Amino acid sequence: MTRIQIITIAINFILIAYIARLITKGKLREEYAIVWCVCTLFLIVFSFWTKGLEVMSKLFGVFDPPNLVFTAFIFIILIYLLHLSVVSSKSHHSITRLTQEIALMKEKMKREEQERKKA
Amino acid sequence: MTKLLVIIPCYNEGNTLPLILEQLLQLKLPAHYQMDIAVVNDCSKDDTKWIADLYPIVVLDLLVNLGIGGAVQTGFLYAKENGFDLAVQVDGDGQHPPRELIKLIDFYEETKTNITIGSRFLAEGGFKSSFARRMGIRYFHWLNKILTGKSIYDSTSGFRLFDKSAITIAAAKYPDEYPEPASLVLFSNGGLSIAEVPVLMSERLAGQSSIGNFASIYYCIKVTMSMLFIYARKSSWL
Fold it and tell me: Do residues A85 and A77 make contact, with C-beta atoms less than 8 angstroms apart?
């Protein structure tokens, strides 16, 4: 095993441990964690299987193996960012609805209290 | 009996709000009209809420700043929940003189149009805004004509009277940022009738337009996109 393999494997395990910690502490929802876990698993596989990158490059017909890494990861990151934009839009909509509902409820409560005082 | 709700979306309008409220409360409406005023305080940093609470009106206090669209929509939700027949948006910065409201109401009584827009371009005199803004308004006139088939000159005017069916649509779905031109496509999709009435608008008494110089290009792009997407939703291309 080469030095770089040991370093990457060690970093991968630290990353997995950190993701697990975030989930157990309730700071990361499981649905987002899946993406990160799959990513780290990928990295671990390729750290052990050093020939893997060349095999995959040949399979996809990529001349220079590192280019496959960049292309694949940039694509995955873009898709994930799009997904995050969808999530953020959804939260935005929910916050709007909640804020409006609270304003309407506060007004209703105030009105009912005034009517009770009158009676 | 016709129940009318005046919706005043406010963001830091503490200086101009008392004057508008005084004018509105003194307004002489047709006898069968019953008017309520709802101030929507969009998380103002000044004393807007405190001032609004002094008057015999409804105050809808938003905990989070939602922007003009979300604020006005809160007013529509209130109108729908409490069975109002009509709702009118009057801006808190004094651009829409309350006495002009009579013109919208008279027009509605004659024609029963679903949405009556107070337009600053059909009238003589009054405040007419800058050249760049007029160009933008001409562009939206053109875009609206393509998407809705209706000729609306002042599509950015927020001074509008909504009837019950328009309130229902706006309460369910209203664009959150720069909602005026885009909502016209929404109402047109719903098959509502839209008409313009000349009104005199004044320059805002205080405060700034929500659209600055740098933001105006963003404004055009954003509004164009939301209009196209709302139109596409109806045509179910996507």
Answer: no
Whether residue B84 has pLDDT greater than 80? yes
How many whole angstroms separate alpha carbon B87 and alpha carbon B76?
7
Residue A42 C-alpha, separation from nearest chain B C-alpha, in angstroms: 35
CA distance A75 to B198: 53
Distance from CA of B58 to the nearest CA of A (A): 7
CA–CA separation, B133 and B209 (whole Å): 11
How many structural domains comprise chain B?
1
CATH no. for residue B168? 3.90.550.10
Interface contact A97, partner B, CB < 8 A: no
| A104 interfacial to chain B (CB closer than 8 Å) | yes
Instruction: Give Dmax (Cα) for chain A.
Output: 85
Domain that holds residue B200: 2-235
Asked if A104 and B59 come within 8 Å (Cβ–Cβ), the reply is: no
Return the C-alpha torsion angle B126, B131, B132, B135, nearest 10: 90
ipTM comes to 0.84
- Asked if A109 is an interface residue toward chain B (Cβ–Cβ < 8 A), one would say no
Contact present, B13 and B92 (Cβ < 8 Å): yes
What is the torsion angle, in degrees rounded to the nearest 10, for the CA atoms of residue A80, residue A86, residue A89 and residue A93? -140
Compute the distance between CA of residue B78 and CA of residue B71 in angstroms, rounded to an integer. 11
Q: Which of B63, B65, B173, B225 to mutate to test the interface with A (most CBs of A within 10 A)?
A: B63
Cβ–Cβ gap A99/B62 under 8 Å = yes
Of A95, A100, A106, the CB nearest to B77: A100
Residue type, B153: Y
**pLDDT tens, position by position, B96-117:** 989 999 999 999 999 999 999 9
Sort out which chain A residues have CB atoms less than 8 A from B63's CB and list them: 99, 102-103
Average pLDDT over residues A22-41: 84
B180 within 8 A of B136, measured Cβ to Cβ:
no
